[in-house]
Amino acid sequence: MTTTTLDQAAERRKRIEAERRRRPESDVWLRVLTRALDAAEQPVWSTLDPRLPSARHPDAPLLHEAFVAVDRGPAGRLVRGLLKAAASTAGAGAASLAPLRGRAVEPVDLLAAAAAEDTDRLAATAERAGADPQAFVAVARLAALPLLRGCAAALAAKLPAGWSRGHCPACGGWPAVAELRGLERRRVLRCARCATGWELPVLVCPFCDERDHARQVTLAPEGEENRRRVDACRTCQGYLKTLTTLAPLHPWAVPLEDLATIEMDLAVQERGFAPPAAPGFAPAVRIVAADGALARLRGGWA
Fold it and tell me: Of 122, 118, 146, whose CA–CA distance to 134 is shortest?
């Protein structure tokens, strides 16, 4: 996993505080995100060892049908901490999560559902406990961030060369942003879930693979065309925010850049474009508690 130096940690805190001042309404989300990013730096997530199936469909991300053993203790602390951070607010939806901190949620099961993009299962768990499903799903997705980042880092050397799909080759997530990186302005998509980066040509829609430039449109804030823009597709009505960068964004910066450019989302959505409703590729990843995992890691897994 990419480590965060003292300078990076200071920069991260600075960015988070800047966003909190600029968007006070995002305070709860930033509080939960901060806890998730802090957890992602803990050694327990950098030592994950995903066991991959012996065969994989070429469209499937690496985590599809993989086994990942997770220590129940850190998983529990992570989930309880995020639920506590989210519940400490006056908002009715987030506050409804408070009872879930001590009951009704098995942390490893929550991580498994979130990693597999199983929002129906997560929503059902929230409804049984009388919690707001939308708030619960949002927290669960952030809870999966340390797990998915750790898995992606462990699998970095195994990423398929020449990956040309719009979803992440590691975890199957859609990109949060694209980078036009370096002097060559290579287009690198960055996963919203695990921050993995992969290249895709500029004139290719990651959501529907449309390649006709006449079906694509570029929108940008006035005077900022060379710094940031939105690439939208008239075929599927999807869009992707694109940033010019000299170097790769650090993994912690990907969700912050996504938030910092939210006004671009609002502007393009007013024109009828929208993020994809379905997951990129919902991986059937199998997250199991470490104390029972070894017995299952046999037969057909490398």
Answer: 122
